[in-house]
Amino acid sequence: MLDKAVTLLETFRPDGGTYRLTELAERTGLTKTTVFRIAADLVRLGLLERTGDTYRLGGKLFELGSLVPRRQDLREAALPFLQDLFEATRETVHLGVREGHEVVYVERIHGHDVLPLPSRIGGRLPLTCTGVGKALLAFSGAELAEEVLAQPLPSLTPYSITDPARLRTAIEQAQVSGLAYEEQEAALGVSCIAAPVFDGAVAVAALSVAVPRARYRPAQLAPAVRTAALGLSRVLRSGG
Amino acid sequence: MLDKAVTLLETFRPDGGTYRLTELAERTGLTKTTVFRIAADLVRLGLLERTGDTYRLGGKLFELGSLVPRRQDLREAALPFLQDLFEATRETVHLGVREGHEVVYVERIHGHDVLPLPSRIGGRLPLTCTGVGKALLAFSGAELAEEVLAQPLPSLTPYSITDPARLRTAIEQAQVSGLAYEEQEAALGVSCIAAPVFDGAVAVAALSVAVPRARYRPAQLAPAVRTAALGLSRVLRSGG
DNA sequence: AAGTTTGTTCCGTGACACGGAACAGCTCGG
DNA sequence: CCGAGCTGTTCCGTGTCACGGAACAAACTT
């Protein structure tokens, strides 16, 4: 029952999709009757909304999700530094945490020009294809890095690193410099520079700035990213 | 079953609270056994996390909540304008939508100085005590305003408007000027100025800037708030 | 008008959610 | 030292309610 309800909610993965009853039944593998009954319950509870014959995720889910303490506290602490970084660079700024072998984006702010990035708040991407992911990977212990390197490396673009040896040197470079670089590995035409955020000795998050390749000036971005990450790390250490 | 699970999740309302098993049983009114079983299921599904004997909301809830299309689309469209407004004023900026007789905050950005406000992303506050709420109330149809005015007006501070007649004139002023004002009605020492955001003819959201009373200069804030709201309205009308 | 969708209702069966009771591990205080 | 009061956890018999196949009505396409 609970499992089926969550399965149902999780089929809404893609961006802003709205589904019909039979479509949900197919995707979830549940009986049409079961989907009908559970969806009705979920609508009654506010987790799902229904207009006509199409379902979409409901407002209560947003409210509940906003209460998740780990995410919310981090976001609250990070926001001023993300603002600083955005103002200094005027480019798209990310904040992400690690979850397994993926990065979950907690915040993303940008101006009027929106880059065609695969990153979304609450979305997951492979650690190995993103700046934030690489920064996290470089400072989350050797055993995690080995785990990731042992598996086939996913790719989002033709530029995504799929060679473990190349990724290993990239990680080592990040560990030395305290900065992770990414060039068109997550989205074509977009490069990225990221830095880890520490709460004590372990990296709890990473932030990055993503820039259209034409405007990519690492020497100017690096100090800003590093400054923001260090500032946030300091606040986290003192605050909690 | 589903009802009980949602009840369980909803008891986490307060700020970042973590609860223990018996505490959850008391607050929900459910049996300790039932809470134990359902909580275990929720942990297994990632909606709840457990460390030691304390439960807190889980990361999957954050991910699901981030997918809610209504909220996410609005936030994405609004963010650039909120950034503009923040840069112009350097004060705390809000974006909220109406849900029943309450405002739900969709976004809130601020710099390093954090005001002691009751507003939280995903949080609900009475329409009548907040700038965003008043702006929504003024442009959501007369019948809604009458409904709200007919009920006893809640208050967050001693300055919150509890006299229906006073609220009525405030709403009328907002309808004329296109701006809603609020002075210490949501939090002591903080004033606020808000403007509605239209998608066509109906107000779908409102944005506001909250300022410490000492720095409150309405004449300077008003144009910035109005500009941001109009810009966002224009994008919404053309985009969807 | 026949056929194929859709969403919805009905209903008999059986699994499983339920909660009281009993258990185990802990921290008190006498 | 030991019992009283907590905690989280397990067990189990009862009864319910979730389940899905089948039948339905409505809106399409053909």
From TrEMBL, chains A, B:
This is Pectin degradation repressor protein KdgR. Coiled coil: none annotated. Keywords: DNA-binding, Transcription, Transcription regulation. One of its GO terms (biological process) is negative regulation of DNA-templated transcription. It comes from the Bacteria. InterPro entries: GAF-like_dom_sf (IPR029016), HTH_MetabolicPath_Reg (IPR050707), Tscrpt_reg_IclR_C (IPR014757), Tscrpt_reg_IclR_N (IPR005471), WH-like_DNA-bd_sf (IPR036388), WH_DNA-bd_sf (IPR036390). GO terms for molecular function: DNA binding; DNA-binding transcription factor activity. Residues 60-238 form the IclR-ED domain. Residues 1-59 form the HTH iclR-type domain.
